[in-house]
Write a structure and sequence with these properties.
Helices cover about 15% and strands about 40% of the residues. The chain has 7 helices and 28 strands. It has helices at about 40-45, 60-70, 120-130, 180-190, 250-255, 315-330, 375-385, and strands at about 15-20, 25-30, 50-55, 85-90, 90-100, 100-110, 110-115, 115-120, 135-140, 145-150, 155-160, 175-180, 205-215, 215-220, 225-235, 245-250, 265-270, 275-280, 285-290, 310-315, 335-340, 345-350, 355-360, 365, 370-375, 390-395, 400-405, 410-420. β4 and β5 form a beta hairpin. The radius of gyration is 26 Å and the shape is elongated.
Length: about 425
């Protein structure tokens, strides 16, 4: 299935009406469109009007529907987008969900009696499947109803016509690369927390930058106050010029969550405009619409050199920061770090809660320093450091500080930058 703007339109949900601009079977619905050509429409129509029937393992379908339901926007105003699409064909069931920004599809084996498709409410069906014991269930249905038989129970669920469901994006592929699934999960976990979660700050800062050059990948996320950077080698690099993608951070988290036991993540740019990225790991495929915009020049934020540093036990510093933040009290969670005589002293105070004082032994290089940070931000960064010992590097009380592991994992590099607070 592929998109073609010059040929026809169909909306996701609602009642169809013929478009005066196009001859049937094309339809227009308000302002949300999907485009088909004649060949695609004809080849898909066999799934629309036919009943569907299959039997499968309850664990398989519960896992697939559960994963897909996490993509569904609970506040959508388009009814069909509240559903998941189940397609049965050639001994395989494919479960798909989308919010038009992220599309997840996962497959598993089943005994298909009648090939076809059906859509069911995502949350309701996921909750129902999650409460089934292990066993074999039978699902049959029409475009208006799905019936499930399991042992001595029978359930009917209201359905919506599968032809209203958004199609998969264009299969036209551009740049492709792959990387180790474990490394991918580590990279995503190391950076996405630093992306903004405030829509007011814009989609670019809510995304994560992927920089691909030859056989290496760099992931960067920032909310303007802190920056996370991680890089490693690819299993298979790209050919040609280096490229960059801004991927919604939520999409990367969904990919990391659904890797399962896969060894490799295959990544491909999709569409004529290369404005979507496909991530495939085993039976799961996630397609993300890329963020359109210019990512900040993060290299300008990272000081070229530092003149003082401390090496400290990561867990001990996290504990001290968390305790001190309880006293800090204000919105900025401000704590002060004073470095002197091979010691790091954490202090915080507020008129309501009182005062905090923590003294830690460190390895200090360079001059003494007193600097203030948001305790929550610093603790969160340290919590993602993959090393028992962390290195904090400084240039001055008002300059960005760098935080990195003393010993990085083989083949990876971690770096964090945190803006200080005015004291």
């Amino acid at each position: 299935m592929h998109m073609c703007r010059s040929e026809g339109k169909r909306r996701y949900g609602g009642a169809a009406r013929p478009s005066p601009q196009f001859a049937p079977p094309y339809y227009r619905y308000d302002d949300i469109y999907v485009f088909y050509d004649d060949e695609t429409t004809d080849s898909e129509r066999w799934r629309i009007d036919r009943a569907v029937k299959f039997t499968c393992n309850t664990k398989d379908i519960a896992n697939a529907v559960g994963a897909a339901s996490k993509v569904v926007n609970a506040h959508t105003t388009v009814p069909i987008l509240s559903n998941v699409l189940l397609t049965a064909q050639d001994g395989t069931i494919r479960i798909r969900a989308t919010d038009l920004e992220i599309t997840l599809e996962q497959g598993f084996s089943a005994e298909v009696t009648e090939a076809g498709s059906i859509t069911v409410p995502a949350k309701l069906f996921s909750d129902y499947l999650g409460n089934l014991p292990p066993g074999i269930m039978e699902l049959s249905g029409t475009p208006a109803r799905a019936s499930v038989k399991f042992e001595r129970s029978n359930y009917d669920f209201h359905a919506l016509p599968p032809d209203e469901y958004p199609p998969l994006p264009s299969a036209q592929r551009g740049a492709t690369f792959s990387l180790d699934a474990k490394r991918f999960r580590e990279g995503v976990g190391s950076v996405v927390f630093a992306a903004s979660n405030e829509e007011a700050r814009g989609a670019v800062l809510m995304g994560t930058l992927l920089e691909i050059a030859n056989d290496s990948i760099t992931m960067v996320a920032t909310d303007g106050y802190r920056l996370a950077k991680w890089d490693t080698k690819l299993s298979r690099g790209i050919e040609g010029a280096a490229t960059k993608y801004i991927v919604p951070s939520r999409a990367l988290s969904e990919v990391a969550r659904n890797l399962g036991s896969s060894d490799v993540v295959e990544v491909s740019a999709l569409g004529p405009a290369q404005n979507q990225l496909s991530f495939t790991a085993g039976p799961t495929s996630i397609i993300a619409r890329l963020v359109d915009g210019q990512y900040p020049n993060y290299a300008q934020v990272i000081p070229a050199q530092f003149d003082r540093s401390v090496t400290v036990n990561t867990g001990t510093l996290i504990g001290g920061l968390r305790r001190a933040s309880l006293v800090a009290g204000d919105r900025a969670n401000m704590v002060k770090l004073a470095v002197a005589n091979q010691q790091l002293i954490i202090t915080a105070s507020s008129d309501v809660a009182g005062n905090a004082y923590e003294e830690l032994e460190v390895q200090q290089t360079g001059d003494d320093l007193t600097i203030a940070f948001n305790a929550k931000y610093l603790a969160e960064i340290l919590n993602h450091i993959d090393s028992p010992q962390a290195v904090l590097e400084f240039l001055g009380p008002l300059s960005p500080a760098a935080i990195r592991p003393l010993e990085a994992l083989d083949g990876t590099t971690q770096l964090y930058v945190l803006m200080p607070l005015r004291q």
